[in-house]
Amino acid sequence: MSNSICICGSEKFDIVIEGNYSYFPVNGKIVTFQALKCLSCGLVMTNPAPVEVDKDSEVKIHEDDYINYLEESAYRINQLKPYLNDSTKILEIGCYTGKLVEMAAQLGVKESIGIELLSKAAAYGRSLGRDIRDMLLDECNFPSNYFDIIQAHHVLEHIPNLQETLDEISRVLKPNGIFYVTVPRYNSVFVRSANWAGWYPQEHFWHFTEKTLIELLAKHELEISKFCCPIHHATKKDKFYGVKRMMKWGVKNLNMGDTLEAFFYKKS
C-alpha cells in the first residue's frame, strides 16, 4: 500500500476496512485496497489512490445501465423543479451524455450547461444538441457568481484535487445559489464488507458521511440546507435487487441508505 496524505494535510489514519473488491472487476481482476479514515478531519480515502480516468476511454451504453441513468436524471430534475424558472442558470458537473442538461433546457431555464470529462460521452450529448464541455471546471472560465444551481451526482468521490474543485464551485455559484450533490455513504447499515459497490476503489478517491461532507463543504462557504440517505448502490447484479428497489423510498425517509443526497446553499 502507498503512503497517504489527506486533503487536510494529515498523515495519520485508522483503517475503516480493507480487503478484496470484485464487484466491478478491472479486466477480470480483483482489486485489493484499504479505506483509511483521517484522524484529523474524519474524511475517508482510498489507498492506494485510483489512477485518474482517461478522457478518451471507450463509452459503452448498456441498456439496463442507460435505463437507470434516465430514471435517475428524471428523479433529480424533479427534485430541482421547485428552484427552476426562466432566469435560472444551471450547471451539471459530470453530466455523462447530458440527459439532465436537456431536461432542464426543456423546462425553459435561461441556461443549462454540462461538464463531462469522458470525451465520447460529451460528444454523443452534443450530437443531440446538448451544451456539454469536455474539460475541467476551472478550464471553463465561467464568471464568478454565475450559476443559480450546480448539480454533481456521484462526482465528488472521483475528484483527486477536491479542495480546488470545491473552491471553483463556490466561486461560480451565486450567493444563496444551490449546490445539489449526491455521494456514496459508507456508514450505512447496508455496508458490511469491502465488496460494497460504492467503495469502487478503481475510481473513488474519497468516501463520505453526513458529518464529513457537511464539514468539508462549510469550509468552502457552502452550508447544508437538507439531506436524505436513500439506497443507490443496488443493481441487477445484486441477489436481492428487487427487494432493495422496493425498500428504496422507505430507507430514504429513515436516512439509512448507502447514498447521501444533499442540498447546500452558498452563504451570501
From TrEMBL:
InterPro entries: SAM-dependent_MTases_sf
A GO term for molecular function: methyltransferase activity
GO biological process: methylation
One Pfam family, short name: Methyltransf_23
UniProt KW keywords: Methyltransferase, Transferase
Protein name: Class I SAM-dependent methyltransferase
